[in-house]
TrEMBL record:
InterPro entries the UniProt entry points to: Cro/C1-type_HTH, Lambda_DNA-bd_dom_sf, MLTR_LBD
Organism: Cellulomonas gilvus (strain ATCC 13127 / NRRL B-14078) (Cellvibrio gilvus)
GO MF, one example: DNA binding
Source taxonomy: Bacteria, Bacillati, Actinomycetota, Actinomycetes, Micrococcales
Gene3D superfamilies, alphabetized: 3.30.450.180, lambda repressor-like DNA-binding domains
Record-given protein name: Helix-turn-helix domain protein
A Pfam family that the UniProt record links to this protein: HTH_31
Length: 281
């Protein structure tokens, strides 16, 4: 781990980012060139003290998940992310096998959707980035590790993950998740993330095995969904999907028809704290 070079790199990338680049207001008293440390720390989902020590060259060696969070928070390009990993004493992630780097252009779109429920997910349903409104609607979906990062894996192994949908919609949602996973498996093949999720679920869930045997294929989310929220009740939302063809990642944006009760409920998400539970999107 090259602490001095890592510190210099982090400071340089922070100075290069402006508040407008990440959806933050500039304010009238800003004197810092670029973002403040605490702003970057918040974007990375870590404490300001932890991030500050890294910039001062005296922090611990960051883990790979922590480096991934820093790469997203600083809107690094793929080459910059690889450089970050090497400075921190890790091998650069295999670009062919790792799909968790979000392109800066996609992150800029997410930053401008601050008050709208939106999230970036991989083709196996691993949530990489959420807006605050999405966290208020769905909970923090980025905190999971291992196979639990996958929406479809949690759906069949953790009953509480289904609470976001009305019970009468569960059968259809389960079938859709399996169909999307099959499409991802066909694209990735043996050794892919989708393959690992499939093998684990076949060993753990009879329900999944039954649905898997039906060979239903679908590679996109349904546009209209009904969701449940503990404070807002049931909402009917439209889910627009933007596909990044380079990575296979999806940007999901949840909206509702203006002037409807569902639209009013979505607007209330901006004043609600993030949900403590973490159901599937």
């Amino acid at each position: 781990m090259d602490r001095p070079q890592l510190a210099d790199f982090l400071r340089a990338r922070r100075a290069a980012l402006q508040p407008e680049d990440v959806g933050l207001p500039r304010g009238s008293r800003r004197r810092t060139a670029g973002l403040r440390r605490e702003e970057v720390a918040a974007l990375c989902g870590m404490s300001a003290d932890y991030y500050g020590r890294l910039e001062q060259g005296r922090g611990p060696q960051p883990s790979e998940p922590m480096l991934g969070a820093i790469a997203r928070g600083l809107h690094l390009t793929l080459a910059e992310r690889d450089h970050l990993f090497r400075l921190a004493g890790h091998h650069a992630p295999d670009r062919a096998a790792r799909a968790d780097h979000v392109a800066p252009a996609v992150l800029r779109i997410v930053d401008r959707l601050h008050d709208t429920p939106a999230m970036v997910v991989t083709e196996t349903g691993e949530t990489l980035v959420q807006t605050p409104a999405a966290m208020a609607l769905l909970g923090d979906q980025t905190r999971f590790t291992g196979l639990d990062r996958s929406t479809v894996f949690r759906w069949f192994t953790d009953p509480s993950s289904r609470d976001v949908y009305p019970p009468e919609d569960h059968d259809e949602r389960a079938a859709t998740f399996v169909a999307e996973l099959r499409a991802a498996y066909a694209r990735g093949g043996a050794g892919s993330r989708a393959h690992r999720v499939v093998e684990a679920l076949l060993a753990r869930s009879d329900e999944f095995a039954t649905l898997w045997a039906q060979h239903r294929v679908d590679d996109k989310h349904a546009r209209t969904k009904r969701m449940q929220h503990p404070d807002l009740g049931t909402l009917t939302v439209d889910c627009q999907t933007l596909l990044d063809t380079d990575t296979g990642q999806r940007l999901l944006v949840f909206t509702a028809t203006p002037g409807t009760p569902d639209s009013d409920k979505l607007a209330l998400l901006t004043v609600l704290a993030p949900r403590q539970s973490t159901p599937a999107p």
